[in-house]
Amino acid sequence: MNYYKALRLVTNLRALSVLKTKLIAYKLKRSIIGEVLLMNIKSTEYLISIKNRKGFIASGVMNVDSYDDNEIIAVTRLGFLRIKGEELHIISLNLEEETLEVGGHFISLEYFEDKGTKLRAKSKGILNKLLR
């Protein structure tokens, strides 16, 4: 393998290594011949499980923003999650595994986005364009 082929292979590997998931980074390696080897690919799925409106488990939970007996707001990979109910209590919150387990009587679950975060991101993008 000459120097230029090796350099091209390294460049292709660096460009392809941008693709990764939260749970397991995967590597997509392309050889000079064009064969593709996929290793360790696991898609990231976020699950919510409710048992008889009394038990709730969610994955992809990064933090709990606020909670009381009637409402819990969790920060998830898919946005904010509002859990409404009665006598709600957090059974477990594992930030390493990104899981949340809640007990109580559930009335509703709702995903929403923080409009302030969206607005700050938009203004930051405009500021970056002006500074270029």
SSE layout:
Layout: H1 3-16, E1 27-30, E2 36-39, E3 48-51, E4 55-59, E5 61-67, E6 71-76, E7 79-94, E8 99-112, H2 115-131
Antiparallel strand pairs: 1-2, 3-4, 4-8, 5-6, 6-7, 7-8
Count of helix runs: 2
Outline = elongated
Number of strands: 8
Order of helices and strands: HEEEEEEEEH
Q: Calculate Rg over CA atoms.
A: 22 Å
The CATH C-level name of the largest domain is Mainly Beta
Q: What's the N-to-C terminus distance?
A: 41 Å
Which structural class best describes the helix and strand composition? alpha+beta
The pLDDT mean sits at: 71
Structural features, described:
The protein is of the alpha+beta class. The protein has 2 domains: 3-39, no CATH class; 48-114, Immunoglobulin-like (Sandwich), CATH 2.60.40. Helix content is 23%, strand content 45%. It has helices at residues 3-16, 115-131; strands spanning 27-30, 36-39, 48-51, 55-59, 61-67, 71-76, 79-94, 99-112. It has a 6-stranded antiparallel sheet with strand order 3-4-8-7-6-5, with no helix packed on it. It is elongated. The two termini are 41 Å apart.
